[in-house]
Amino acid sequence: MGDAARPLRRRLGKKLDAAFPYWSLLPAILLFLGLSVYPILRLLHMSLSTISFEGGVERVAFAPMANVALLLNDPVLRPAIVNTLVFVAVSVAAEMIIGLALAIFVSRVRRGKGPMRTVMILPILVPPVAIGSMWRLIYNYDFGVINQAIGVLGIERVDWLGQPSLALVSVIIVDVWHWVPFIFLILFAAVEALPVDVIEAAHLDGASRGQITRHVILPLLMPATAVAFVFRAVLAFKTFDEVFLLTAGGPGTATDLISLHIYNVFFVQNQLGYGAMLSISLILMIVSLLLVGRRAALRVQVRHG
What we know:
The chain is mainly α. The protein contains 14 helices and two strands, in the order ααββαααααααααααα. The protein has a two-stranded antiparallel ribbon. The radius of gyration is 27 Å and the shape is flat.
């Protein structure tokens, strides 16, 4: 009896050994479902409902068209979308150009590369609260550094954060200052990893430094550039703290971004269902950006090997 049971135990042991990798992933899968999938599904359910509180009790009514009607008739949504698109396009473009230029410049420095790299990444280490306070002082109308400097030149003081035509530009400047180190770090690592023999071969063929940069370095950097662009663009769509601390969306709706509008709808107006609908809309915008960025990155990889 004991001899007959041994083959069965061996087969059972082999099956358990083969299934062990899948069972060992179960805690990670459950953790992912609990922390990522469930909140998204909960947000989707909220976006299709009208939520209110009566006597401390949550009342949820399934009314998707009510939130859609609010979405279509929201007078603040359109300027928020325009501001967000302008903010993302201008700030990310400036950060990519400045970050790429700094990465190439620092990579060519023979001495002091380490200290320069350390100094350049300092802005990204500063907490957003400190950034907001610091730049509010810099932009201050009465005693800000910028107005003091232009006052010496005989130029009238400017209300950088209180003038609608300048407020968004002022916020974009702060965002560029804050996030250029992020792009610099990604592209600097890519520049340092470029094949030296290819660059030296181009140099021996008589190519100038500008020609090497344009026809060798930039094409080789395109995959890293595409990845940095997508990452930064996604983060820019979700920008909240800088704008909230600098202008709180004002003056008027001059700097009201979608993320700030969602905050106001959720926590100021207490419209949880409509706020969830806006959040889902923002997620769809970011997913669309990711799909476009992924397609562009694949094209770059195919084109440049």
